[in-house]
Design the sequence.
């Protein structure tokens, strides 16, 4: 994310290079988190913002971290800014668990619950 002064008349950045924001709607990137994907919500503990409304965050910051599913997580705008612009840290412990560490050193686990929707009952009509 690039924060830049904006020209009020034209709504354009006034000199800083513009970067594209990675979001769930960003085609190829958004496809990493389709309806059957690993993360269906913001990965901040207790946040239930749907992944489709989230920014995609690099666990290991770009350019050191690659833009690939193993290094990406959906974060709602509030928690993306919290991670990016404060001293909060996040670490990936395994494929399903992330650890958030607050500025005071407190730790919060966010294990990934089973987010697979249950199959429809077999006795329901097909319409």
Sequence:
């Amino acid at each position: 994310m690039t924060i830049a002064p904006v020209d009020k008349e034209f709504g354009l950045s006034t000199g800083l290079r513009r970067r594209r924001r990675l979001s769930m709607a960003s085609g190829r990137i958004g496809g990493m988190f389709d309806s059957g994907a690993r993360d269906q919500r913001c990965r901040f503990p207790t946040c239930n913002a749907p992944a489709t409304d989230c920014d995609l965050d690099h666990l290991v910051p770009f350019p050191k971290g690659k833009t690939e599913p193993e290094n990406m997580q959906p974060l709602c705008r509030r928690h993306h800014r919290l991670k990016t612009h404060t001293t909060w840290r996040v670490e990936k412990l395994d494929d399903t668990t992330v650890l958030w560490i607050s500025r005071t050193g407190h730790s919060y686990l966010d294990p990934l619950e089973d987010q697979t929707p249950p199959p429809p009952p077999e006795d329901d009509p097909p319409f």
Observations:
- Helices lie at 27-30, 77-85.
